[in-house]
């Protein structure tokens, strides 16, 4: 027999998206007991996804979610296993340890009850977490490559991006962008001299994702140009200064 507080603790963990097996190991409650409680209360409206935006409130903290959304649209994918649990994986280059840490922190903030791990692969690490609710948190998930399907934000996602635009831009740049130093030559006093200047590039094959990036740049007052179908360039001095203040180079 289990007292009322023990039952509440177990149901709260289930509500965070943990599996029955995980809750059983964490609390010492038998899986048979957990199953019997669910059979009695789920028909009455018990919701295991109470912290899921599709099942309840929008993600918290929203700033971390806005950054994670940008990372996912650039270098992320969601895959399902046979148990109906989904893995979110975001590829981060080994050369950017700060980016790997920031990605892991944002992923953990989005699903605090689920573990985040790092899987090594040649030249990169896949920051990974398992949850039944990743497709709810990231409804852009679907079959095939992102640039082969329509990518739009849900209303609640757009509200978060509007409230935290720089985090979204930073996530996109960290995934598919860079800060580089360009150079050109100028005639100064009859002598040709080398002139260097910084600029940001964002590259993506999806016209929809490029549109989300540029519309958010417009929102924060960053001027941009599109030299071709897959690249966005930010080169004007004032706009680069804005990007440096809020994004900066990868690290």
Give an overview in words.
The chain is of the alpha+beta class and 251 residues long. About 4% of the residues have low confidence. The longest helix is centred in the N-terminal third of the chain and has 14 residues. The strands form two sheets. The protein has a four-stranded antiparallel sheet with strand order 1-2-4-3. A four-stranded antiparallel sheet has the order 5-6-8-7. It is 43% helix and 24% strand. It folds into three domains: 41 residues; 88 residues, Roll (Endonuclease I-creI); 72 residues, Roll (Endonuclease I-creI), CATH 3.10.28.10. It has ten helices and eight strands.
Short précis:
The protein is α+β, with helices and mostly antiparallel strands. It has helices spanning 4-15, 20-27, 31-41, 62-75, 97-110, 134-137, 155-163, 165-176, 207-220, 237-246; strands at residues 76-80, 86-93, 116-121, 124-131, 177-188, 191-203, 225-228, 231-234. The longest helix has 14 residues, at 62-75.
């Amino acid at each position: 027999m289990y007292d009322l507080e023990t039952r509440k603790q177990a149901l709260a963990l289930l509500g965070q998206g943990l599996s029955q097996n995980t809750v059983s190991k964490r609390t010492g409650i038998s899986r048979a007991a957990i199953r019997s409680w669910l059979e009695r209360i789920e028909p009455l409206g018990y919701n295991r996804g109470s912290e899921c935006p599709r099942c309840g409130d929008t993600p918290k903290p929203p700033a971390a979610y806005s950054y994670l959304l940008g990372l996912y649209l650039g270098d992320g994918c969601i895959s399902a296993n046979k148990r109906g649990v989904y893995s979110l994986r975001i590829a981060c280059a080994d050369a950017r340890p700060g980016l790997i840490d920031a990605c892991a922190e944002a992923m953990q903030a989005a699903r605090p009850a689920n573990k985040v791990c790092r899987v090594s692969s040649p030249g990169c690490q896949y920051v990974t977490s398992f949850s039944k609710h990743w497709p709810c948190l990231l409804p852009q998930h679907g079959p095939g490559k992102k640039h082969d399907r329509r990518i739009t934000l849900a209303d609640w996602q757009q509200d978060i991006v509007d409230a935290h635009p720089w985090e979204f831009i930073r996530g996109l740049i960290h995934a598919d962008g860079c800060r580089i130093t360009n150079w050109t030559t100028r005639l100064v006093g009859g002598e040709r001299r080398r002139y260097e200047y910084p600029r940001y590039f964002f590259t993506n094959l999806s016209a929809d994702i490029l549109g989300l990036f540029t519309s958010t740049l417009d929102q924060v007052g960053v001027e941009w140009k599109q030299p071709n179908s897959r690249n966005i360039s930010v080169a004007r001095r004032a706009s680069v200064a804005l990007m440096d203040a809020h994004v900066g180079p990868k690290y």
